[in-house]
Amino acid sequence: DKEVRAIFLRLFAQLFQGYRSCLQLIRIHAEPVIHFHKAAFLGKRGLIENDFLTKVLNGMAFAGFVSERGPPFRACDLFDELVAFEVERIKAEEGNPPKMIKHVRELAEQLFKNENPNPHIAFQKVPRPTEGSHLRVHILPFPTINECRVQELLQEGLARSQGAPPATRGDKKCVVPAGPPVGM
């Protein structure tokens, strides 16, 4: 699973290399608007006639990609590092399958580490139902709700949330590396 995702990560890093150099931040509105210059991107890469890439850039998924990844100051991830620093490595590995496979495995390992930061924590497996368990009908009565206790719990929760500091997200924001400019 992770290796397939790593292959697609490499593919999109190659496909969109240099996209940041074709982004324009428009600050007319209270909320900045990010515009992507498709013609400049395709022209600089010599792919104006490429029907596939033109359709990708005109799609809703790419518009979401630009709005999500366009801001210059946000939390960076593995894709940003690939697009900014590894595109030359990916190009060099095109003719060398063993190096390409090694890089895919490295990326897959990084994806696994990102999703499982504490690998020593064991996941508990759900036990298989016993034979014939589907034939037994267990109808448990729904418990009655104590309205006073519910109100008490709500009040306690509100009191705690008012005294607690505002929740912050754990992602560290940074300036997104632009990477190499768009080229042929």
UniProtKB/TrEMBL annotation:
A GO biological process of this protein is: regulation of Rab protein signal transduction
Q: Which residues form the UDENN domain?
A: 1-76
Where is the segment annotated Disordered?
A: 159-184
Q: Name one GO molecular function term.
A: guanyl-nucleotide exchange factor activity
Reading the lineage from the top rank, the first entry is Eukaryota
Cite a GO CC annotation.
cytoplasmic vesicle
The protein's matches in SMART domains, at most eight in alphabetical order, are given as: dDENN (SM00801)
Q: Which InterPro entries match?
A: dDENN_dom, DENN_Domain_GEFs, Tripartite_DENN
Which PROSITE patterns does UniProt cross-reference here?
A: DENN (PS50211)
Spell out the protein name for this chain: MTMRD protein
Provenance organism: Probosciger aterrimus
